Amino acid sequence: MKADKLREMTEQELNNKLNELKNELFNLRFQLATGQLENPMRIKSVKKDIARTKTILREKELKQMKA
């Protein structure tokens, strides 16, 4: 997911997206452990999406504190 799309989302939507990504990462790790994971690169992309989402949430938090 692109950072521009994340910046357009509200904080509630970002928190929901973050929870979805964390659940997806959990499921991917579970599949990896059981040998059912078809695309191991998906783990890396989900981790990066989680980091992007957290970064945007932090930016919004700092913007509110500044205003």
Describe this structure in words.
- With 67 residues, this protein is an all-alpha fold.
- The protein has one domain: Helix Hairpins (Orthogonal Bundle), CATH 1.10.287.310.
- The protein is built from 3 helices and no strands.
- The longest helix is centred in the last third of the chain and has 26 residues, at 41-66.
- The protein is elongated.
- It starts with a helix and ends with a helix.
- The model has no long low-confidence stretch (mean pLDDT 95).
Distance between the termini: 28 Å
Content of β-strand: under 5%
The major sheet is characterized as: none
Q: Supply Rg.
A: 14 Å
Overall shape: it is: elongated
- Estimate nothing, just give the exact number of structural domains: 1
CATH architecture assignment: Orthogonal Bundle
Element-by-element helix/strand order: HHH
| Backbone structural class | mainly alpha
DSSP summary: helix tally: 3
What is the overall pLDDT average? 95
Residue share in helix? over 70%
What's the CATH first level?
Mainly Alpha
Report the strand count. Answer: 0
What order do the helices and strands come in, and which of them pair?
Blueprint: H1 3-8, H2 11-34, H3 41-66
Helix pairs in contact: 2-3
Can you summarize this structure?
By secondary structure, this protein is mainly α. Helix content is 84%, strand content 0%.
